[in-house]
Amino acid sequence: MPALRTLQTFVNTWECDENDHMNVQFYYSKFDDAALVFQTLIGLDEQLSPRARRHVRYHAELRGGEQVAIQSSFVSSDDSGTVLQHIMLETHSGRLAATAIDYYSEQAIGEFSDVTEPLDPRAVSRSLLHSLEDTDITRQVREAQGFPVTSRGVVRAEHCGKDGVARDQAYISCVSDAASHAWELVGLSGGWLGERGFGRVAVEMRLSVFEPLRLGDIFELRTSFIASRSKSFSKRYDIFNLKTGKLCAVNEATAMILNHTTRKSEAIPDFAQEAIRALSSSKIEI
């Protein structure tokens, strides 16, 4: 049996942002849905163990009114866990829109080997190749280190599952809201971008959840920069429970400047490269 079609849906205009394409939070939301549908289709009585991380690459823009389908399959399983992959396609043209790789801590393939396929090489990370560190850091430590706050808010009901636990959209929506504040830290303000007909776009993300947020929890994001290249840079968003100070999740994101006319990326200006170096939390890649 090949990969299963786990989602067949549509891009609503209200899912699109200032770039006139589907916002990153809705890719994660649709991948969340696809994972649940996949487990139901193969007859898993219970959900897989809590997912350790989800890695997403954005390959092509999706615009309002386009049709979307997701194909899902197991990739591999060993003593350390299970890997599930999702391939998101725009159905009219067949073009690849996005890929996701889910990593679970428990072994689950077993009798489901008929829905196992090789890892699609297009899903493999290109810019987030490092291991995640500082997973036990606290809000107080980041505050003392001077990591700036880029978002605060409350987990909403529409971003939670039936058990009140935050879905991926809860984390990625606050990351999306924080992005403009993070870009402004290095001089790439909305005004600077708007004057040139440019926008902000993510091309790759990795979400790792440690202590899930729940409905009504108050969160805080603090941002650092982890890499800079000629046409992209990578950031780390530490997502804390504001009440407890605990690190709930980390989102790492690679971003580019999007030219709204050509729909192509633009070079990161020198002043931004210098600011990223000054604010970086790790070795810079040039």
Feature tags:
single chain; 286 residues; alpha+beta; Thiol Ester Dehydrase, Chain A; 2 domains; 11-stranded antiparallel sheet; 11 strands; fatty acyl-CoA hydrolase activity
Question: Layout of helices and strands, plus pairs?
Answer:
Elements: E1 4-10, H1 24-41, E2 51-58, E3 67-78, E4 81-90, E5 96-104, H2 139-145, E6 149-154, H3 168-185, H4 190-195, E7 198-209, E8 218-228, E9 233-241, E10 247-259, E11 265-266, H5 270-279
Antiparallel strand pairs: 1-3, 2-5, 2-7, 3-4, 4-5, 6-8, 7-10, 8-9, 9-10, 10-11
How is the main sheet built? 11 strands, antiparallel
Radius of gyration: 19 Å
Q: From N to C, what is the helix and strand string?
A: EHEEEEHEHHEEEEEH
Approximate shape:
globular
Summarize model confidence as the mean pLDDT. 92
**CATH architecture classification name of the largest domain:** Roll
**Intertermini distance:** 44 Å
The CATH class of the largest domain: Alpha Beta
CATH topology of the largest domain: the name is Thiol Ester Dehydrase, Chain A
Structural class: alpha+beta
InterPro entries: 4-hydroxybenzoyl-CoA_TE, HotDog_dom_sf
Protein name: Acyl-CoA thioester hydrolase
Pfam families: 4HBT_2
Family: Belongs to the 4-hydroxybenzoyl-CoA thioesterase family.
